Amino acid sequence: MIPVPLFPNETVAVVGLARSGLSAARSLKAGGARVIAWDDQEKGRALAEGEFDVVAPENWNWDKLKAIVLSPGIPLTHPKPHPIVVEAGKRGVEVIGDVELFCRTLKMLGHFNGNGGPAFFSQGPVNPTPGLRGNGKGNGSKAKTPLICITGTNGKSTTTALIGHLLSKNGWDAEVGGNIGKPVLELNPPREGTIYVLELSSYQLDLSPSLKPNVAILLNITPDHLDRHGGMEGYIASKRRIFERQGTGDLAIIGVDTAPAAETCTRVSARGGPQVAPISVDRVVGRGIYALNGVLYDGLYSPPAEIVDLKGIQSLIGAHNWENAAAAYAAVRGYIKDPKAIARAFATYPGLPHRIEALGKIGKVRFVNDSKATNADSTEKALAAYPRDIHWIVGGQAKAGGIDALKPFFKKITRAYLIGDAADDFAEVLAKAGVPYDRSGTLAVAARQALEEATAGEGEDPVVLLSPACASFDQFKDYEDRGNQFRRIVQDLARSNGSAAAA
Known about the structure:
Largest sheet: 9 strands, mixed
CATH architecture of the largest domain: 3-Layer(aba) Sandwich
Strand content: 15-25%
Shape: globular
CATH class of the largest domain: Alpha Beta
Structural class: alpha/beta
Number of strands: 22
Low-confidence stretches: 122-141
Strand order of the largest sheet: 7-8-6-9-10-11-12-13-14
Mean pLDDT: 91
Helix content: 25-40%
CATH topology of the largest domain: UDP-N-acetylmuramoyl-L-alanine:D-glutamate ligase
Number of helices: 15
């Protein structure tokens, strides 16, 4: 935990008592603040009882309140601001988030000097000779505790975890958290040589006015959370905040394969300040990093250097993961001098649970857990990753638009297995498209049917893919529960077939 010494003996309200809220409250308390806590839900309030003063807003002494720390899940502006936010505006009380507490604490403790990102363009042409390994002293960074921040509509979690993996494998002390894994204030306190790698949502960016990453990454921008931002324009503006405070010596890594992100790249380049490194999986980009047909190139210099063929890395399968890999390479290039060391670390990346997670084979049948795909856009990435003979487990609580957007990928599907509330609606779509399907009902039945069909089929490398394109709450606690149950089901099927699931 990182104690927050910003408000000694002063009153701070923490609103929203889920993971990040409780973490912020504990860090503030450890730093000497008097914390009052509130959650609109009784369940949230119960989590804080006995540890903090749980006080309803109507009983607050607003004149004594120094700040409000708002959970990212609570509306700041849209569809309409939370009543506490409105009242804070009237009374001149600052509303911030846990990432802002983190940034101010680093600055207060002298671990963040506001500049000094990686020496990205000063490395010279790619040199196969191993350079310094990250001992936190010198190796491309002037900041005591460099800050790498990642945002984007898709790929944030994978990119964040991958950067942490690449750094750790090359000797760096990488602390990984934010919107992935641990809340930022549950990470270890800053030490000289530590690199913080943080996944940040648009909600978190809106609550972090002093954020100034040494390395800031925007992967892509497609429509998402539009109700929380008042439309696409507001959503784009939130994502662009990651670059607002960057200056000379900092690095901006920006994907150029979606139009709003490409425009952002142009804007950041034109304004001056940070070095800009474009990334792409669609085309060659000068002075940037790109992956064509799965081969990652360092295009910082002429001629471009081939770094690694990503196609053989199961945990990085698919073009969306090649984009993630390009961003991760760009982020660590200034800290790891030997590109071959980065390439070797790519090969050992285990992947994220529930995101195109390889569970192994039973006979010739490959099982893949993509339970994190809770909408069609996410499932599209998984369907695109496999060329043919997909046995698709799909269904749950349907999102707006259902699976209509996935019709271009239906030709890859040998058979679909429908589960959950969406089964009837999805059956109608699949029937019209001529895709064979079974109304399996449950995940266990679907997995068993898929194994039987795939084993009996003529294909040499069939894939049983759980990529539901739906929320999980009709049959499961959450997508993690759904994925964990699928993993256990596959293990049981392997045992019943007289083997363990082979890698």
